[in-house]
Amino acid sequence: MNGSEQRYIDEAFETNWIAPVGPHINAFEKEIADYIGVKGALAVSSGTAAIHLALILLDVKKGDTVFCSSLTFVASANPIVYQGAEPVFIDSEPETWNMSPEALKQALEEAYEANELPKAVIVVNLYGQSAKMEEITALCEEYEVPVIEDAAESLGATYGRRASGSFGKFGIFSFNGNKIITTSGGGMLVSDDTDALERAGFLATQARDRAAHYQHSQVGYNYRMSNILAGVGRGQFAILDQRVAQKRRVFERYFVELAHIPGVTFMPEPGGTMSNRWLTAITLDPEVCPVTPHDMLSALAEENIEARPVWKPLHLQPLFDKCRYYAHSDQSVSERLFETGICLPSGTNMPAEDQQRVISCVKSVFNMADLQEIRYATS
Ligand SMILES: *Cc1c(COP(=O)(O)O)cnc(C)c1O
Asked: Which terminal Cβ of the chain has fewer Cβ within 10 Å, N or C?
């Protein structure tokens, strides 16, 4: 929190808008929609709820398929299962670590031949880096398949001149506690289709018909954001650009200190895109590097430093072991990233001294490994 959130919370209390309706919600939706450059936004209880609503609006139901990035958090795909539909997972490519247009093309071609095109494609922008949206949206347009852009991790990032989250029929954001800005829990569904958003709002408030009595003709959900949390969101949104700058500074410091180490590669940021660098992610090339991600994570843990592996690809999850998967080439890029990747501590409130401690620990693991190699070579 940066301080201004409290003012918005106090305002909600003073005006007694303690409900999933109220002025902060309307203002927060407008602020996000304007920032992203879309016609409308709907504040909801989570990013997962936003994806679920998008799938319902696209009429995803039992027996349908939905394509989804494999290298992501499970929340990207869970709502496909809520709808009784079947996820088909698409590999990453090496330049953005996101959905491979090559794998997507092959999957779309095969689905077209089999007369079973997916109802939607969920494209994730991993760790704040946009996928190759131009190629992906062109392919999806060719087959007339709508795109849901899962921008849960990439608020504040850009692709070309446009904001991340503005490329699909729907975009979704998350304000969960770990994201770049937070409402403790919350999400946003954005779109240029304001009629669809109105319908999403109806579904998110138990699908109550227009009647004075409580009448319902279809199933609804309790998915709206509270006015208090929207106040927190407004306070957080005010410093979004500052957060992006801080995250990028954290990345820069790691890069300057560690990029020269043989076998260490940082998550790329292709020209024309700007990542919010939500997490600084690196890979350790096993052909060059004597240190495995496991070694690195344990060494950091010994120093009481929490770091994490890269997301386990969804096609490798027991939950999805029956699902189809399209690899980028004869190599599965997401599997390789999972085997070699680490996310370093990237908090914007991490003091420079703490980051220096992480950097020293990482360097010492390499030094120890070098010493062992020398000892091995000379013995
Ligand atoms: C966090 C996250 C979500 C889910 O958001 P919640 O608000 O936690 O439901 C979805 N997709 C990705 C890629 C995420 O990182």
From this structure: C
